[in-house]
Amino acid sequence: WRISCRITSTRETIHLPSFHCAQVESILHQVHRLNVGFIFFLPDEKHHGQTIADGFILHGCSGGAFDDSTSSPPPPRTIKKVAVIGSGISGLTVAHCLTNSPLLRDRYGALSRFDVSIYDSRSSLDTRAGAGVQLNGGPAVLGLINPTVQQAVTSAGLPQVRVQSRTKSWGDDPFDTLFQVELPESILRKGGELAEKLMDKNNNLLWTAIMRGALQQALVDTLPNSQGIISFNKELVGIAANPQTIDGGCLLEFVDGSTEGPFDLVVGADGIKSACKEFIEKGKISADPSQREGAAAAIYSGIRIKYAVKDGVESENQMETATLKQYFGNGAFALDGIYGAGPSKPNTRSAFLVYLDDNYNGPFRRKNPAQITAAQENADWTQDVELTLQSERAIMKTAASEAGVPTVDVGPTIDSADRIFSLGVYYHNPFSLVGWSKEVARSGGSHVVLVGDAAHALPPFLGQGSNQAIQDAYCLACKLYEYNMCLGSESLVEEESPKGLEEYLKKYQDLRWRVTFDIFLKSLLLGYLETGGRDGIYAKFRDAFFKTMGLVGVAERVLFSAATPKV
Q1: Which of 89, 364, 396, 550 sees the fewest Cβ atoms within 10 Å?
Q2: Which of 236, 234, 239 shows the shortest CA–CA distance to 282?
């Protein structure tokens, strides 16, 4: 049956279009928010020769007297309007999946249409912020979304063809080599799934070294109508049900007093200290971002990182491929590499010094606890932590030399750096009692869900943050497409109830949590192992361990295991 409805409140009468009888309970879920006095349900059409009674009146709803606690949940509805909080790598990839993926639309059919809006608290996209990233599984997944986007990203970077691990010499040489992996040759030799996912159809390597800013710029440039989709200076302070319509949805409230919506889904891609994550866990958003993690606040690892970035100059010789070089010392290690900075732009060089904080033994303070302040996390690469160059160059190079880190490559990069960043490595709790998603109360089924660092911030020691963010976005989008396709499927029998959105979001979480937790554990152990301990207490063991793992192929397997996308 289909019926029409007229809601009479103390303020106004609302005439609704006809709807299916199955939606009656959904409407009753909403009426107490409208201060309803009477609801008239009127017959609209005949069904198999029968009609509904001439109408019936529901009394006693005024002032919220109607109790919806015992009624059934509202029927599922397709996801159409999606808000993405954050225009970082995960947020932009979500937007591509939902609005710019012919492959996903072809797979999931006509209902795969989404209206996406992105809101970012920053004033603009800062392409100078951050250092270089290693994309391995990420480009392969971008190819599953849109090959044009994949091509734009790989063209903005450099093919990463080699990984070298070296240590301070135990003899007279400048350094000793522990292992070296020639990526194209090793991947093609192994073949199978590895080659399928990390090489393109022409056997070109997808493994890409790219500056973080260049990666974001490539994702923005290939996003249709990006200027109309992305709104800056939008700091989220509240998520609430839409009180104005029976159809539900949720509204977003921003610090500037503006409100946007309603939305069927909110994707939290807002990184560490995520407003969306706090809403899921506490049902509210703190004005002070530092208070958002509460009892689950991240733990300072006692490991610090300094990043030196040297912008390219067109007059210099430009490399066509990239090599990542690692150098071990006592209580520290360094990385040096060349990264693509965008199409037709000169390459950028980055040097990374990872070292132990003198005031900490792991996460534990060593001395004068009241006088010690843990290093900033700075996962958003804000420019206000860019350090004074002259002094920081000297500090960074001295720290590397004192730890015995070979400076044959990192030294020149530090000496000529255009900017230096500093951060502390924090370990974020990978466990959550409430999960990565939550329904917004009284919204008619709208949900908030997390991706990227908002869901699972990872230590940087396996270089997987950006890769896993892209994979999160893809997996979440697939579940949204599947959900909409299920609701629109004619194969459902009349008595069969379609699965709710929360079931699809839970499947997304289950898939991605296992993968990211494995990377979290390996990265946590790897960070301490690679430093060699305070004063190099286990540096020789570390060197012997990596040398052996390189010889028997374990180092290569660990590298490829993390790099292979799991979607």
Answers
A1: 364
A2: 239
Which residues have CB under 8 Å from 527's CB, separation 6+?
Answer: 301, 303, 354, 425, 459, 461
480 closest CA partner among 109, 98, 38: 98
> Angle, nearest 10°, between helix axes 89-99 and 212-221?
20
| Pair 80, 44: CB distance under 8 Å | no
Cα 439 to Cα 441: distance, rounded to the nearest angstrom: 6
- State which amino acid sits at residue 310: K
Q: How many CB atoms lie within 10 A of CB 342?
A: 19
Residue 292 DSSP SS3: coil
For residue 208, give the amino acid letter.
T
Q: Would you give the distance in Å from CA 147 to the centre of its chain?
A: 21
**The tokens 């301070």 sit on which residue?**
168
Percent of the chain at pLDDT above 90?
A: 64
Segment (H or E) for 38: strand 36-43
- Overall residue count recorded for the chain in this entry: 567
Q: What percent of the chain is helix, strand and coil (3-state, nearest 5)?
A: 35, 25, 35
CA-to-CA distance for 385 and 387, rounded, in angstroms? 6
Q: CB–CB of 320/205 below 8 Å?
A: no
For the CA atoms of 203, 209, 212, 215, the dihedral, rounded to the nearest 10 degrees, stands at: -20
- Residues 25-34 as b/e (b if ≥16 CB within 10 A, e otherwise) read ebbbbbbbbb
Of residues 417, 428, 368, the one with CA closest to residue 395: 417
How, if at all, do strands 175-182 and 208-211 pair?
A: unpaired
| Dist CA 219 CA 554 (whole Å) | 34
E strands, 222-292, are 230-231, 236-241, 250-254, 259-263, 265-268
Which amino acid appears at position 193 of this protein?
Answer: E
Instruction: Sheet containing 437-439: give its strands across.
Output: 230-231, 115-119, 81-85, 265-268, 447-450, 437-439
The pairing of strands 208-211 and 322-328 is unpaired
Joined together, the tokens standing for residue 446 give 């709208």
Give the DSSP H or E segment for 118.
strand 115-119
* 242: Cβ contacts below 8 Å, ≥ 6 apart: 248, 249, 250, 251, 261, 262, 443
Q: Which run of H or E residues covers position 511?
A: helix 501-531
Whether 425 and 305 have beta carbons less than 8 Å apart is answered as: yes
Which structure tokens are listed for 356? 């132990």
Q: What is the dihedral of CA 243, 248, 252, 256, to 10 degrees?
A: -30
Q: Which two tokens stand for residue 226?
A: 């990006």
Rounded CA gap, 532 and 356, in Å? 10
Angstrom CA distances, 315 to 44, 155, 319, 540, stand at: 76, 20, 12, 42
pLDDT tens per residue, range 384-443:
445 678 888 999 999 999 999 999 999 999 999 999 988 899 998 888 889 999 999 999
Q: Distance between CA 160 and CA 162 in Å, rounded?
A: 6
Pairing of strands 13-20, 2-9: antiparallel
